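hi! just following up on the protien thing from before. the input was this:
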Amino acid sequence: MRARDLGIAIGDGVPAAKNAITDVGGVRVGHTTLIEGDSVRTGVTVVIPPETPLFAGCHRLNGNGELTGLEWVRESGLLTTPIGITNTFSVGVVRDAIAAASADEDAWSLPVVGETFDGFLNDIRGQHVTAEHTHAALTGAHDGEVEEGNVGGGTGMVCHEFKGGIGTASRTVEGYVVGVLVQANYGRRRRFRVDGVRVGELIGDQIPEPTRGDESGSIIGIVATDAPLLPHQCDRLAQRAGLGVGRMGGTAAHSSGDLFFAFATGNRGLAARGVIALQMLSDSEITPFYDVVIESTEEAILNAMLAAETMTGRDGNTVHALEPELLLEALRQA
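and the predicted 3d structure came back as:
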């Protein structure tokens, strides 16, 4: 189930064919999902660009989280590896596995790997994600429709006190494509909004709320585009993903790691020596790209929630899914 299956169209933009980050040519996504016994609810997701290096940028909305390799991205403006997303305690093993898979004997590698905390449903301290799980996600990555909800790194995640996880969406803009993928694990129910409607308040306790004490959690957002953007423009696209989170009712709470990354495939061959011919979208033409990043982020979060299913995990903790009919009824009330 996705937002548009319910007739919910976020904003005015037009999705590309798959309404996913894989609409950006050459981008692939892979998942390894771990659901074992009563307490393992986790995994790893990878986003693989069509080639590296590519121009890239990043933004921190709130920094209680991790997205590795950003100092080099800020210094060089380049993405040099696939991107991994997993749980908080598995960043190291995923980072090492991507480094091993990305490098030949003499190559240098500094992977980008993000995390959100799945310890309410998952035995996070058990560190169940392994290098083999990361290699499986890399090997299984494809450019088709992206699995959403309780998959990959999003398996044990909670969003607005409903079941969260992986979600994606895309838009066409000025002859180009922008796609967003999120791992959504943040927010209070009472602030949950869809297209500006305060649906969280209207749904209320019709769906049981998990018994978590504070607004713990985070969101990782990956933006991709085939437009010819330079690194400073990628920074600016990454920043706008945070506005999509805000439209959903996210506040970047003190305990939240809200980190966003953007890369652009419109300039290739950046590893060549000597003078490299580049293209750049004029900054005067970039505002429509901001619009569609915001819309795609909002829709990707909603898609993650609608695709997710009720899950019981560690210590018998249960997080219930957002029920489509209750969501539609709340929208009708408004």
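The mean pLDDT is 96.
The chain has one domain: 12-333.
cheers
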